[in-house]
């Protein structure tokens, strides 16, 4: 629709130094006496968290934990750190008759996500960072397709790969019709930003704003829309892809359209309507770029290829557990 070819948006001549980091939210499941329920026992929770690494945090809900990696210029180091932490957390949880589950939805629980942070060296101005984030955003839709892990089958949607993408209050299309000054006010100075304004598919996580969330030492682009990923190959594919897109993105490919207000309004509506296609089991083509996921990964030269959407059983690869029949009574599609 907006892109004539990938070289327009992603090109070696726009190469930049990128710093990347990751956060993964996981479920804690109580397996004591084969109950397989979301963990809500405070005594067990305190016992577990006392043994967790300092990079593992208790999230807002007791049955959710969050793993945060250190930032690095090498996406491989971030992937290695995240995978090792997930394995260590899994080991500790099993010792307490619990397991961790890296998927984005279990009935009765809140949605989990996989957030990736990107910043640049030297540090960019806020407005320039906004331009890079918006130019990256269409390609983040494609990478999201790799991660879908909140499957459900119901009357409202039929069979879909991620309920989170359609119903989570913590993600959503950013206000594409805003200019740089609007975004600066929206994400830094607007008091409502401490509540809902930060909940978009992609945001600027700023070091100028205080609140429940920790302050960044530098402003980062935070991609919030990814579902949880439970396979080593999947984690590597996401991080390698985001790192390469951030490194080679040309912000001007999207920037030239931004001040066409009517176009941006239509684009928001297009993305909104395309989300149901993003989560369908059969196939996906990006409505903004008209590029398939395979074409994008091929163009980027991604070595760790993982393009299947059926990944919500893939965490078996990383934990070496035979997962119980907990999901069998759910109306989940089976690959």
Give structural notes.
The chain is of the alpha+beta class. The protein has helices at residues 6-9, 42-49, 75-95, 126-147, 163-167, 180-189, 232-248, 252-255, 261-278, 293-300, 316-319; strands at 17-30, 37-38, 56-58, 64-68, 98-101, 114-121, 152-154, 158-160, 202-205, 220-226. The strands form two sheets. Strands 1, 2, 3, 4, 5, 6, 9 and 10 form an eight-stranded antiparallel beta sheet that branches. Strands 7-8 form a two-stranded antiparallel sheet. A hairpin with a 6-residue loop joins strand 1 and strand 2. The chain is globular and about 60 Å long. The protein starts with 5 loop residues before the first helix and ends in a 16-residue tail after the last helix. Mean pLDDT is 85; it is low at 210-215 and 310-335.
């Amino acid at each position: 629709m907006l892109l004539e070819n990938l070289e327009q948006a992603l090109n070696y001549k726009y190469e930049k130094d990128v710093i990347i980091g990751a956060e993964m939210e996981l479920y804690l499941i109580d397996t004591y006496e084969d109950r397989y329920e979301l963990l809500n026992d405070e005594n067990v929770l305190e016992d577990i968290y006392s043994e967790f690494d300092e990079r593992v945090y208790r999230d807002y809900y007791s049955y959710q934990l969050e793993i945060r990696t250190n930032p690095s210029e090498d996406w491989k180091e971030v992937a290695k750190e995240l995978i090792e932490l997930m394995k260590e957390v899994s080991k500790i949880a099993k010792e307490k008759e619990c397991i961790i589950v890296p998927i984005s939805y279990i009935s009765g629980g809140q949605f989990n996500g996989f957030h990736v942070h990107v910043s640049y060296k030297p540090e960019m101005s806020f407005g320039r960072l906004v331009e890079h984030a918006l130019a990256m955003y269409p390609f983040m839709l494609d990478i999201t397709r790799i991660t879908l892990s909140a499957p459900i089958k119901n009357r409202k949607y039929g069979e879909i790969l991620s309920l989170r993408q359609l119903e989570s209050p913590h993600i959503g299309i950013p206000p594409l019709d805003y200019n740089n000054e609007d975004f600066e006010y929206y994400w830094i100075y607007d008091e409502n930003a401490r509540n809902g304004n930060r909940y978009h598919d992609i945001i600027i996580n700023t070091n100028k704003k205080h609140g429940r969330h920790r302050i960044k030492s530098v402003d980062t682009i935070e991609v919030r829309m990814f579902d949880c990923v439970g396979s080593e190959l999947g984690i590597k594919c996401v991080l390698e892809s985001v790192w390469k897109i951030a490194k080679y993105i040309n912000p001007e490919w999207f920037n030239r359209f931004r001040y066409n207000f009517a176009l941006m309004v239509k684009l928001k509506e297009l993305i909104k309507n395309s989300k149901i296609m993003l989560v369908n089991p059969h196939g996906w083509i990006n409505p903004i770029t008209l590029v398939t996921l395979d074409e994008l990964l091929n163009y980027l030269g991604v070595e760790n290829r993982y393009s299947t959407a059926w990944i919500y059983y893939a965490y078996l690869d990383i934990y070496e557990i035979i997962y119980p029949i907990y999901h069998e009574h759910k109306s989940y599609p089976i690959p």
